[in-house]
From TrEMBL:
Cited function: Component of the Mediator complex, a coactivator involved in the regulated transcription of nearly all RNA polymerase II-dependent genes. Mediator functions as a bridge to convey information from gene-specific regulatory proteins to the basal RNA polymerase II transcription machinery. Mediator is recruited to promoters by direct interactions with regulatory proteins and serves as a scaffold for the assembly of a functional preinitiation complex with RNA polymerase II and the general transcription factors.
Subcellular location: Nucleus
Acetylation recorded as keyword: no
Protein name as it appears in the record: Mediator of RNA polymerase II transcription subunit 18
GO biological process, any: regulation of transcription by RNA polymerase II
InterPro entries named in the record: Mediator_Med18
């Protein structure tokens, strides 16, 4: 059994016309739901290209902060390559480490030798179901002058991430298969409305 922590996830997307039906089905089958509005930055090591040239996958960092809560702190988590489809054909399983950062996560990432590759604003909803969180959001554009996010156009695609709420260790007491089964349950639950699938990012 591995001592690593893992994230288990499935992904999907849908058009706005299906929002109400998908919201209703998730609300009926989850313990809670609330709106979310957050900013997420993707950081890569300064020498990421050299690592890729040497056929070595760089370790990415994601910095995330909820914008609706002024007291919210940044969360940083490492973003590692998913395990092979042969090992986990039903869901995306990747090693995962996370850390809460007091103060400026961006300076912290920079001090670790990382540079920001992209920044995305996302607005939508988060549902909680057992050991899972289900995020449903639209990406917002940013005003070039003010750097303030602009609400997404009504036709913007909705993205869905069904994943473990916290890092999961593969032990005898908590086998990773429990988390895989939990995301597959949501996949079956949403069948006919939303196609959730494994994704190699």
């Amino acid at each position: 059994m591995s001592s690593h922590f893992y994230e288990v996830a499935l992904y999907g997307e849908f058009f706005s016309k299906d929002l109400k039906a998908i919201m209703n089905r998730l609300t009926l089958n989850c313990e809670s739901a609330e709106p979310i509005h957050f900013v997420e930055g993707l950081y890569e090591p300064m020498y990421a290209q050299a690592q890729r040239d040497a056929s070595s996958e760089p370790t990415y960092l994601r910095a995330k902060k909820e914008l609706s809560d002024p007291a919210a702190s940044w969360t940083l988590h490492s973003y590692l390559k998913p395990e092979s489809v042969r090992a986990h054909p039903e869901a995306t399983v990747r090693p995962w480490a996370t850390v809460q950062v007091i103060g400026d996560a961006l300076s912290f990432a920079s001090a670790l030798g990382y540079i920001r590759r992209s920044q995305i604003f996302k607005r939508g909803y988060i549902f909680r179901r057992g050991l899972l969180v289900i995020q449903m959001f639209q990406q917002e554009q940013v005003d070039a002058k003010t750097q303030v996010p602009i609400p997404a156009h009504a036709d913007t695609l909705w993205e869905v991430e069904v994943k473990t709420a916290s890092p999961t260790r593969n032990t005898r007491e908590t086998p990773l298969q429990n988390a895989v089964d939990a995301v597959i349950e949501v996949q079956i639950l949403m069948k006919g409305l939303l196609d959730l699938r494994r994704q190699d990012l």
